[in-house]
Amino acid sequence: MRHRSLLILTSVLTTGALTLTACGSRDDKANGGGDNAGGTTTVVIGVDAPLTGSLSALGQGIKNSVDLAVQTANKNKEVPGVTFKIEALDDQATPATGKANATKLVGIKDVLGVVGPLNSGVSQSMQADFDKANLTQVSPANTNPSLSQGDNWGKGEFKRPFKTYFRTATTDVIQGKFAANYLFKDAGKKKVFVVNDKQTYGAGLAAIFSDEFKRLGGTVVGTDSVTVKETDFSSTANKIKASGADSVYFGGQYPEGGLLSDQVKKAGAKIPTMGGDGIYDPEFIKASGEANDGDLATSVGYPVEKLPTAKKFIDDYKAAGYKDAYAAYGGYSYDAAWSIIQAVKAVAAANNGKLPEDARAKVTEAMAKVSFEGVTGTVAFDQYGDTTNKQLTVYQVKNGAWTDVKSETFKD
To answer: What is the rounded CA–CA span in Å between residue 151 and residue 19?
Structure first.
């Protein structure tokens, strides 16, 4: 059970510095306090992710990785005079809950940045609230292009909707094209059946994939959609079998993706199912009763376990004893939190070591200049708030586990 502390705003000093004093009970380890927490100013990093429900494996990895970044910052006294803590909220992967969480985080005056959410659709419901409050948001997992480049990005019209939005994950423009190129050229598949879950992430990714697959010379032999949280996809599976498709592309998350793969194979179509980072999780494999060796997924970045820059993160995460794995977005979540910490550090340094009254606005401004070597490589943001680290990997299920088969850095 999570414990919340009460944070009381004691005064706004004549120097303009914001000083917060913590009182009440808090589980230090769970909330990033740690034995080395000290200092007079408390800065809270909010976390929004699905901490319960079918996507909780990813959400818990996000929360824990942010907590680890906070513990590390406190232990190393990364920002002199500042103690970092986290406030983690469960969005249940639903936009309405995400919006309520955004309102709550905005209302906590010592929150100077938020990591999350996991889902692009949830993010759409939160962005405007954060922007109005000048509160920095950094997602480790959102991939829908419109979040940073505007609704008309597909027409070549790029306009950043919200100055407070950043992400450490690359976009579906890159991921969808990367997947289509691999399936068509490397896997040799020419006839794909495309399915999506009708959500912002899934439908957008499936559309980008389809356009690129057809541009390469492939054929989309059929399309269909499924509903999130439903479990019977036999009608779609039968359509796929009848279409003569040599592959399936699914835009969505692992609970539905795993069941779809299972039911396609049970329908007699022994063909691979491919998806984006939403299905890249061990739970995708567990969801299928049929052996799904050969199924494919793309994910942002290179395998964390193979990055020299991630060794300390992996060791520290293990040493911290978290119950849940850091999962697909752990490294990106740590880097998202660390980017906020570095922005806070820059703002304090520019104000004689203290945080100004307009700290939120100043942190947002400082984010544009953040650059450091993180868990996932060089962390920096372009004019849209998108990551400049555009690495992707294809994974394949082999002997019941995801195995990386190709990594590539996208060049503009």
So the answer is: 40
Rounded distance between C-alpha atoms, residue 391 and residue 409, angstroms: 4
User: Do residues 345 and 337 touch, judged by C-beta distance below 8 A?
Assistant: no
10 Å CB burial of residue 163 (0-12, 13-18, 19+) is middle
Please list, in sequence order, all residues whose beta carbon lies within 8 angstroms of the beta carbon of residue 299, skipping any fewer than 6 positions away: 276, 277, 280, 328, 392, 393, 395
- Per the CB < 8 A criterion, the answer to whether 267 and 233 are in contact is no
Rg, Å, the chain Cα set: 21
Tokens read off for 333? 């979540």
Question: Dihedral through CA 278, CA 280, CA 282, CA 284, nearest 10?
Answer: 60
- Give the per-residue pLDDT at 301: 87
- What are the tens digits of pLDDT across the range 230-248? 999 999 999 999 999 999 9
CA–CA distance, 19 with 160 (Å, rounded to integer):
33
pLDDT one-digit tens code per residue, 76-92: 999 999 999 999 999 99
Among residues 256, 254, 211, 220, the alpha carbon closest in space to that of 237 is found at: 256
How far is the C-alpha of 261 from the C-alpha of 292, rounded, in Å? Answer: 7
Which tokens go with 119?
A: 């889902």
DSSP per-residue codes, 266-292? HTT----EEE-TTT-SHHHHHT-SS--
Between helix 95-107 and helix 120-132 the angle, nearest 10°, is 30
Percent of the chain with pLDDT over 70: 90
Q: What angle do CA 301, 306, 312 make, to 5 degrees?
A: 100
Burial tier of 58 (Cβ tally within 10 Å: 0-12, 13-18, 19+): buried
pTM of the model: 0.83
Residue written as tokens 């779809």?
260
Do residues 66 and 145 make contact, with C-beta atoms less than 8 angstroms apart? no
Residues of the chain with pLDDT below 50 are 1-39
C-alpha torsion sign, points 178, 299, 295, 235: negative
